[in-house]
Amino acid sequence: MAGIGPVTLAGRLVRLEPLDAEHHDGLVDAVRDGELWNLWYTAVPAPADMAAEIARRLALRDSGSMAPFALRRLSDGVLLGMTTYMNIDAELPRVEIGSTWNRASASGTGTNAEAKLLLLGHAFDVLGCPAVEFRTHWMNHQSRAAIERLGAKLDGVLRSHTRTADGSLRDTCVYSILAAEWPQVRAGLNHRLRQR
Length: 196
Fold this sequence. Notes:
Layout: E1 9-10, E2 14-18, H1 24-32, H2 50-63, E3 66-73, E4 79-89, E5 94-102, H3 111-126, E6 131-137, H4 141-150, E7 153-163, E8 169-178, H5 182-194
Parallel strand pairs: 5-6
Antiparallel strand pairs: 1-2, 2-3, 3-4, 4-5, 6-8, 7-8
Pfam families: Acetyltransf_3
GO molecular function: acyltransferase activity
Domain N-acetyltransferase: 15-153
């Protein structure tokens, strides 16, 4: 799967940069905006755990199973959060877009929509993926609504699929967008972004 990474993807609002240890301080600032690590249904790192999370994602990158990005707002250079291509299947090829979080104050500004547009465009138009997957906790209604606004379809729910940090069992919603659906999804995202 040539071109999976490291690659920089840039739009009008945001730039997705290959994750690096140098992003640490900006990501700590981003995660403090909204204290996202306190949401029990997410796996967002606390400020004290950011270095370990960056190291974990870079190790997965080195193993070939993840391409992690830091998300930077272009208007002021501020880091907004992280996202990834994960569960990479280079043979098919197929990727999941996930392990995404953004500072709370960026919600509703179009930056997340543009980041998804960039990631989906690269996956379908450059990598040649026949499908792109998204997964989230059954209880993460905000994430589920955002995934559905993209135009992704619910493939199913994996019940008692994995354990969360507190040891409870998580039901995982699995969504996907097919290559044949990409033109309509792209048009919808472009329409949303024109409103910004």
